[in-house]
Amino acid sequence: MAVHYLEFERPIADLEAKIEQLSKLSETAGPGALDDELEALRARTRELRIEAYSNLDAWQKAQVSRHPERPHFVDYVAALIEDFQELRGDRKFADDQAILGGIGRFRGKPVVIMGHEKGRDTAGRVKHNFGYARPEGYRKTVRLMELAERFNLPVISLVDTAGAYPGMASEERSVAEAIARSTEKCLLLSTPNVTVITGEGMSGGAIGIAATSRVLILEHAIYSVISPEGANSILWRGARTPADAARAMKLTAQDLLKLKVVDRIIPEPPGGAHSDPEAAMAAVGDVLEGELKALEGLSAAELKAKRAERFYAIGRSGLN
Predict the structure, then answer these.
(1) Assigned domain for 42 exists
(2) Which tens digits make up the pLDDT trace of 144-167?
(3) Are residues 156 and 69 in the same domain?
(4) How many CA atoms within 13 Å lie on the side-chain side of 293?
(5) Please, which residues have CB within 8 angstroms of residue 33's CB and are 6 or more apart in sequence?
(6) Is the domain of 39 the same as that of 163?
(7) Does one domain contain both 163 and 32?
(8) Are 169 and 38 in a shared domain?
(9) Confidence class of residue 32 from pLDDT cuts 50, 70 and 90?
C-alpha cells in the first residue's frame, strides 16, 4: 500500500525513497554491503520526523489530524475492546453507520463504546458517509447511553468527524434537535463517560458525543466549532486561507488545554499516530483505563456536578 505523505513531510519522503532504492540494491550487492549507508539514512529519517512533528503549526496539525492512515474507530475497537457487540439503529428511523457503537469489555470491564467512523476505501467512505452523522446517528447514541445507565456501565466516546451531515434530509429529520438531545444525555448521564478526540472534532457533530466527564485529545488532533475551511469561507469570505483560520481559531490540543476545553493531552508516537498505530492505540488505552478508574467510585450526583463544573470552567483561564 502506498504511503501517504503530507506536504511538510516531503524531505522524509525523499529519504525513505532513497532507503527503498538502497535496500533493493543491497539484495544484489551482497550481505552487509550497504548496511552502514542504510542505517545512517534511517537515523536521519528518524531525526527529521521528530524535528518536523515537534514544530507543527496549527494548519499542519489540522492536516495530521485528517491523515487517512490514523487509527479509526474500528481500529480502536479491534485493539482495545474484547467481545464487542455492535448495536444498530435508533428505533425511530434507521441505522446511521457514520456513528458506530455497542458493548464490550475494556481491560476486562464491561463498557459502552461509540464513535465516528469515516471509512478507509471508497466503498467504506460511502457506507460511513465520511463520518458525517445524520440525526439517527445521534438518536442511536442516546439509546446507547440509556442502555449504559440501565446496566450501570461507563461510556467511552471516540470523536473523529468534520461535522454532522448538513444535507436537506438531515435538516428535515431535525439534526440540531438530535445533537442537542445527545449532548444533554452526555451531560446528565448517571455513569462515568470519557471522550477521546482521536482526529478532527468539528462543530456540533463532535460535541454531540463529547460533553463528558473527561475530554481527552491526542497530541496532533484538533477540536473546534467549525473547520478552518469553513471559518475562512464564512468569516472572511475566502479572502484569507484555511491556514490563517487555523492559527486564529486556537484549535490545537495545546491551546485547548490552556483554555480548559480539554482535560488532558495523550502523546502520539514520533511522526504522529499514523506512523505507529499500535503504539498510539495502546497509549489511548492506558490513559482511558486510568481516567475511568478515577471516576469509578463517584455517585450519579457527583458525576453530574463535576461535569457541570468542568464545562462552566471552559475559557476562564484564557491564553497567555
Answers:
(1) yes
(2) 999 999 999 999 999 999 999 999
(3) yes
(4) 9
(5) 26
(6) no
(7) no
(8) no
(9) low
Q: Determine, yes or no, domain membership for 318.
A: no
The amino acid that residue 9 corresponds to is E
Q: What would the pLDDT profile of 161-172 be if each residue is shown by its tens digit?
A: 999 999 999 999
Q: At 177, list the grid cell.
A: 434537535
Is residue 1 included in any domain, yes or no?
no
Quick one: 136 exposed, middle or buried, by C-beta within 10 A (0-12, 13-18, 19+)? Answer: buried
Read off the pTM: 0.92
Contact 92, 145 (CB under 8 A): no
Q: Are 185 and 145 in contact (CB under 8 A)?
A: yes
Q: Are 25 and 162 within one domain?
A: no
**Cα gap 218→273, rounded to integer Å:** 8
Query: DSSP letter string over 167-234?
Result: SHHHHHTTHHHHHHHHHHHHHH-SS-EEEEEEEEEEHHHHHTTT-SSEEEEETT-EEESS-HHHHHHH
Whether residue 12 contacts residue 45, with contact meaning beta carbons closer than 8 Å, is answered with yes
